[in-house]
Amino acid sequence: MAIRIFETDPDARPKQTFSDDTVGRFHGGKQVDNLPVALSEWRVTTGDPEVADAIAQLMGGTPVETDSTSENFIEILTTQDKVKVVLSGPDAISSDLKLWNGSALIHHCDGVEFLSPDEDRGKPCRCPQLMEDRKAAAKAKRGPSPSIAVTFRLAEDYDLGLFRFQTGSWKLAEVLHEVENALDRVGAEALAELSLELVEYTTKKGRDVSYRKPVIRVLKLWSDAIAEPKF
User: Fold this and answer.
1) Rounded distance, CA 226 to CA 222, Å?
2) Do 162 and 48 form a contact (C-beta atoms < 8 A)?
3) CA torsion angle 168 161 31 74 (round to 10)
4) Beta carbons of 30 and 37 less than 8 angstroms apart
5) pLDDT value of position 231
């Protein structure tokens, strides 16, 4: 279930977050000198040298061991901004809204009701109804931001294992219900494309703006795709 941007189903509840049994993570950015930097191609991290080598062969780049203290300590800066993936269904996507104060989670909801702590679960969170108002509140540090996680397999190496992509993109949050509806229509494992799409425009004041946004495109039934010579 996507973030409840539009109150169309009073009984809707977000799905449980999946257990993290992934072999690697996909990222649209990285930290440089403790500052976030957006990337134009996918960055992949893993703790498994064999997975790192497989990613490099499929997507370009060179596995590099990092000094990070996290569990995923091999990094590959790929040369690809899109990748074909296999999604199990709507349950491959988890989303909610979170506001952090340092390492403390101080607001956790689905846009309509609190999801935690237990004593507040189910109570109205009083977040604004409109997306733009939610974004403004989050920018002012007065409201939560999206927390979206997607688990998938690589279409070109299905048996390599599950990967995870986590993002706080408002652009993806706005259309996440469309992705889940498309997965519902497929009704089984689906071939999809996960990309970092370039967005360029000029503001009314004449300023050129350029950035990358994560995009999920559901393409077709996976069983149909593997029956074709090349998907």
Assistant:
1) 6
2) no
3) 170
4) yes
5) 65
The pLDDT tens digits of the residues spanning 36-86 come to: 888 999 999 999 999 999 999 999 999 999 875 555 489 999 999 999 999
94 — phi, psi (to 5°)?
Answer: -125, 135
Tokens matching residue 65: 């061991």
pTM of the predicted protein model:
0.84
Token readout for 106 is 């101080």
CB 159, CB 171: distance < 8 Å: no
Cα(84)–Cα(179) distance, integer angstroms: 15
95 burial via Cβ count (<10 Å: 0-12, 13-18, 19+): buried
For residue 85, give Cα distances in angstroms to 53, 70, 166: 18, 25, 15
